[in-house]
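Appendix C. Worked example: D-tagatose-bisphosphate aldolase, class II, non-catalytic subunit
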Amino acid sequence: MNRVIAIVVQPGVEFDHTQIIHYQPQAAKALSDWIKETPMVYEAHSTDYQTRQAYRALVRDHYAILKVGPALTFALREAIFALAQMENELVSPEQRSRVLEVIDEVMLNEPGYWKKYYRPTWSQAMVDIHFSLSDRIRYYWPHPRIRQSVEKLIANLNNVTLPLGLISQFMPVQFERLSEGVLTPTPHNLIIDKIQDVLRAYRFGCTPDVA
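Step 2, the predicted output written as structure tokens:
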């Protein structure tokens, strides 16, 4: 027992495919107060997609470990989808990666990671495949066909200049960071910075002196 440092709890934060339940400190007050009498801390489960201020409130209320998962891979998916739209504008059809088509083909042909989780009708399932907050796409990024198409996407965009207006259209936060001079417009950098948007929110919550 002396090796236990934390208790995993659910402080009223959750998400499903389309909705987010946000942290309400007063609703979790009894749980937050209980840990004060122990030498342990809480690990808050499913904190993905909370606001920066919610992360700070969770840490203040003794949820010292914030579990994150799909929010990071959801940001990766957003970045890949955005780059695919840029590719459609900049690369001739015969040279494109077809990454979005390949993702659909693979996931529909190999539905094991998503079928029992998503809605049953085809149109709803396609929305879930593409945009569910549960982000079941994350299990497919290592697939050889998808990996190859992502590599081709990045290679294609490395061979052209990414117009600032196009970046602003599909990745507006990254456009702001480019304008501030803290980011260079390569596909790899845009992907990493998009994922770091999520980590910056967690850093804000976990670091009281960060504005």
